[in-house]
Every structure is written in structure tokens, then in C-alpha cells.
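_Per-residue structure_
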Amino acid sequence: MCSTNGEVTVTAGPGTALLMDARVRHSPEAERIDTRGEPPVWRAELPDGSAAWVASGYDAARQVLTDSGFAKPAVRGGERWTDYLAFTGKEVTDSIVRSMLNTDGDLHRQLRELGASAFTPERVRDTADRAETLAEALLDEIAGRGRADLVHEFAHPFAVRAITEHLGYPPDFVRRALELRRWGPSPLFDPPGSPDRARYAADRTAMSELLHDLVAFRRGSPGPDAVSGMIAHADAAGLDEGQLTSTLFLLLVSAYEPVADFLTSSLYSLWHRPDLLADPARVADGLGELLRYTSPLAATMPRFASRPMELYGAELAPGDAVIVHLALANRDPRRFTAPNRLDLDRETGQDLVFAHGPHFCLGSQFAVRLCRTALGAVLRRLPGLAAARPLDMLPWQRGSTGGITHLHVTAGLTELPVTFQPRHAVVS
């Protein structure tokens, strides 16, 4: 507990605070941490001097994800949220943030239907087949060297190319997407004028230009691709171009970020368990547990309380921001036995890897198939795979190894230098 102006505020318990660090969360050190009896909802100070509630208990997280009393920012965010989003001018901002991620109700349903139109079973199946070939081709380029950076030479190009080709980007647009730096996490909680906010503004502007150019290209040259289908769907539903480009942006990031971060955090975790790393078939069978353990999308966009309410001991006022920490909810000992142990024989289900409720990730099965393909190909094609640096020196994304410093508390490495036994490319 801490006291501010005479008001008692719940803070994170000691075990919960330790598990906020992804470096700890993904190592055997976490097995010694017990969070039983610690607050499932607590108050976090943000870098800009404001604060938000964090729901890290499993039951509390599910309630926030499903209770209509917690509204998305476009519904209840007010001026505070508008200020957070102001990396760029209104036109660019509107072309990035007006997706289903930030809305509720009928508009959320319409935007979700727009996004879902890109994930027909046939398209997902075709992309999954092509992803196998893509992974092999990327690994062919590095397999003979014995050394590589798996973020920049495999995870990034694999995930970006898989989702852009799934959506039907023409080759020039795929190239432009690959040239962009990683798009997350967005530094929403940084003070205005911070270097990361300036960097993200430039990245957001470049992404907005790419998406508007893509829509213009497909309007002039429509085809059987998903982008053309989404344009027709948006026009028929009366959705504007900003909502369309925001949905395209969301599909890119929500497919790319979890897949790339899953690969790096999984390898980091498996290197601590060489017995598991030596058995790729067992790893493949235990993919659901590996997803729970790594929780690559570690936290959600904030929701805002629409009325005074009590949430597992926390007293919330209208307008209070609440962040659901999915990774910690997936480590709740009240829900999972020995939650900080990686147990590939664990029966999985009811985790919050892809959130829950109305905003459950609509591309979850697509993402799972890409995760399976990426990790399986790396373990199969790169024998003797090992980190080229000590594990505790590998760089995690900012926001992964401490307090909430960005909107998404990510769980992935920014670099992953590795060594392996060189092999010649596979000729098919």
C-alpha cells in the first residue's frame, strides 16, 4: 500500500513486481516466485506522471475484458486519451487509431466484420501453406553461415511477409513494409516531446502513407486479394477510409508483433530448458503451453471505467484507465498450478493469450499457425542452435523489463544473435 493525499492506493505485490520483468518471467528464476495473496488489481505510475490501474489477476482480467462498464478509448477516453494519441496530426492519427481496437458496440462489430473478411478459412489455409515455403527460403539464406540475427534475418521478414502476402500486398508494398522499423510498442505513456514519441511519429507517418497508397492502388487495380475485398466491404458498410486504413494497420501489427515476439521469447525460455530444446516434436505438441508461458502480447490497450466501481479491492472512479496484463493473468496461481513453470505436458485452455470477450483476437488461429511454422522451422533447420551472447545480456523491448513504460508491455527481444551448425540450403 501507499498513500497519496490521504488516499490509500494498492500497489503491486513483490512477486508481481518481479514478474513484470520479462527477463525474469521467462527464466527458471520465476519458479521461485509466489504471488498468492498479492493484489490482483493495483495502481501503476506512468512515465508522464499519471497513473493507471493494472488487472493482473486472472479473474479480474476476465472481468475487465468482458464487463461493459469498461469502455474502449474512443468511447470513454476523453481528452487524456486524445493527448496520448497525439504523436501526429489528426489526419495521420485518424488513419491509424480508428480500428476495432479502440471502439465498442455497433461500430466495433462493424469494424470487426471488416477485419474478419480478410481471414476466411481458405485464405488462412493458403497462407499457412505458403508460410512453410517462406520459412524454408529465409532459413536457406542463413543456414550455411552458422551465425545470424534471428530477429532481423528471420522473425521480422517472416512475419511481415506472411501477413502482407496474406492480405495481397503487391511486391512493391511488401518491400515498403519490410523497410519500416518495428511498429510497436507505441510510447503512449512517455512525456510529450520524448525521443521515442518523435521516432514513433515518423514511423506512424510512413505507415499511414503506405496504407493510403495501398488503398489507392487497389481501388485502381482491384483483384481477388483480401485488401480489395476489404475495400468493397468497407464501402458497402459505409465505413470511411480512415477506418479502413486503421483496420489494415491493426491486422499488420496484430499478426506481426505476436509472431516475432513469440519466436524470440520461446527460444529464450527453451534455452533455459535444454531437455525441451532437444525434443522439437515435444515442443510442437506443447505449443499451447508455450504460448501461455510466453504470452507474447503481454498487455492490452487501456479501458476506461464508465462509472464508480469496485474491482477486486480497488476503488475505481469514472474515467480511470485499466490495463489488463495478460502475461501476469496467465501466471495466476489461483487459476494455474505452478504457473511459473514451463510444463509442455500441461493441459491448456482458458488462458488469455489472445485476450477474451468481444475483443478476442480474430486472427488467433492464423497467428498460432504462423508461430508453429516459425519455431518448428528454426528448430529443425538450425541444429546446435545457441544464443551468441549470455542470455541475461540479450536486449528486450523497452517496457518488457520493468514498469509499464509503453502502451503494450511487450515480451520480445529486439536482437537475437545466434550460432548453429552450418548446413547447405535445402533444394526442393
Notes: The radius of gyration is 21 Å. The longest strand covers residues 41-45. The CA atoms of residues 111 and 239 lie 8 Å apart. Confidence is low (pLDDT under 50) at residues 1-8.
